[in-house]
Amino acid sequence: MLGCWITTRRREVGLGYGWLLRITFLVLSVGSLVISLGSDGTGAAIAVRDSMGALFSVAVFIALVSSVVRRRAGVSGRLVEHDRRSERVAEMTGIDRTSTTAATASGREFAPILDAVTVVPGMVAVVAAGVAAGGNDAVAVARTVVGAIFLGLVSDAMLLGHWYLVQPGLPRRLLDEVIRLFLWVWPLEVAVMLLPTGMFSVFTGAVDDGWGGQLGWFWAACAVTTGVLTVVTQRALREKAYSAVMAATGLMYLAILTAFGTDLVARAVLAG
After folding, report:
1. Is 212 exposed, middle or buried (0-12, 13-18, 19+ CB in 10 A)?
2. How far apart are CA 134 and CA 83, in angstroms?
């Protein structure tokens, strides 16, 4: 949802993209809450995790409903850009078109701040989940928080890349912004997984991965490949042809697979 707000705050991407992300993360949050409530764990950290997780779900739902209710107002940045292009076409061809802003926009526009509000209870829930995980609290919280942002941003980037098929005129800087932030989080993700007891212990044999060390090297390959794919995606977006956006989306398809390998393989090995 942090990545959702980063994009929606510019008021240029269509309302449907916000709906897609809110529904996606609402389903994930409700699913995690159901699993948590079905577990046997107890304690203050678990109580905070579950209550804040429920509050996060409510906040996302409120943002979704507000966006649907105010859909007739459209998105100001998108409508203005549409009108600007229409005027340009009219100047070149002499064919006039009705202003989209004047013809369809009505009422108050959705407030993107509602997406930002969801981040607060969500982050508290994630921190509490780290404490509830046991072991070294500082390491557990760092891995949980960084991992949530890491996996969230790569998911946002992949979904946003597909949205360019729905809204071809969308500025590339929106996708580049999310990818750039993801690239900043990537080394943090690798670093927190190396904190003791971390993946270094798998390489040295102190932690048995059950596969003779192969999962450790698989994790390393995923970590390096994720960074490489992200950098290549940025390079692709610099190309002028529109096909570059589709190439970037394809690269993010691969990056989301290696990103999940970077996070989940490490967690599975270290949990064992």
Report:
1. exposed
2. 55
**Domain count for the chain:** 1
Residue 64 within a domain? no
Tokens matching residue 130: 């780290």
Long-range contacts of 124-128 (CB under 8 A, 24+ apart): 124/48, 124/52, 125/48, 125/49, 125/50, 125/52, 125/53, 125/55, 125/56, 128/45, 128/46, 128/48, 128/49, 128/52
C-alpha to C-alpha distance for 259 and 41, rounded to whole angstroms: 29
Q: Per the domain annotation, does 141 fall within a domain?
A: yes
Q: Is residue 261 part of a domain?
A: yes
What are the pLDDT digits (tens) for 148-199?
999 999 999 999 999 988 888 788 999 999 999 999 999 999 999 999 989 9
For residue 233, whether the previous peptide bond is cis, meaning omega lies within 30 degrees of 0, is: no
Q: Which are the contacts of 238, defined by CB distance < 8 A and separation ≥ 6?
A: 244
CB 129 within 8 A of CB 77: no
pLDDT digits (tens, 9 = 90+) for 242-261: 788 889 989 999 999 999 99
The tally of CA atoms less than 13 A away on the side-chain side of residue 265 is 24
Which residue range(s) make up the domain with 236? 137-272
* AA letter at 204: T
